[in-house]
Amino acid sequence: MIRIEIKKRSPLKLRKRLRNKARLRKKIFGTEERPRLVVFRSQKHIYAQLVNDMSGKVLVSSHTLKLGAEGSNRKGAEQAGQKIAELALNKNIKKVVFDRNGFIYHGRVQALADAARKAGLVF
Questions:
Q1: Would you say the pTM of this structure is higher than 0.70?
Q2: Contact at 8 Å (CB) between 10 and 73?
Q3: Is there a contact between 75 and 64 (Cβ–Cβ < 8 Å)?
């Protein structure tokens, strides 16, 4: 069971995202054969990682900081999506479960997902 603490003085937008995240995490679970593709979006960068929830380990990760791309736009998100798919395919991972982490499936999150699908990941 996932426990997320939401403080009353947190901004409303953050509280909504954390509520969505908790609701989604009840349904989404990554295994070794089909890990969870987690997306985190900050103000300047976007991060993606494949997580095996059975062992609690991160299998591969990619982010715009590592790529040297500008992460605050869709172009950087597309580069991160292509890179995470490339790293996953190198480890013989083709199928994943997409975890948008409470973020709305729009903009940078959508661009990362579409680029990962185009590069060969199935979800």
A1: yes
A2: no
A3: no
Coarse DSSP helix, strand, coil percentages of the chain, rounded to the nearest 5 percent: 35, 20, 40
Give phi and psi for 7, each to the nearest 5.
Answer: -85, 145
Residue whose C-alpha is closest to residue 84's, from 53, 58, 56, 104: 58
pLDDT of residue 24: 86
Listed in sequence order, the residues at least 6 apart from 120 whose beta carbon sits closer than 8 Å to its beta carbon are: 85, 89, 94
Span 27-47, mean pLDDT?
Answer: 94
Q: What is the pLDDT of residues 51-84, one digit of tens each?
A: 999 999 999 999 999 888 777 899 999 999 999 9
Closest CA to 31 of 2, 52, 55: 52
Q: Which domains does the chain carry?
A: 30-118 (3.30.420.100)
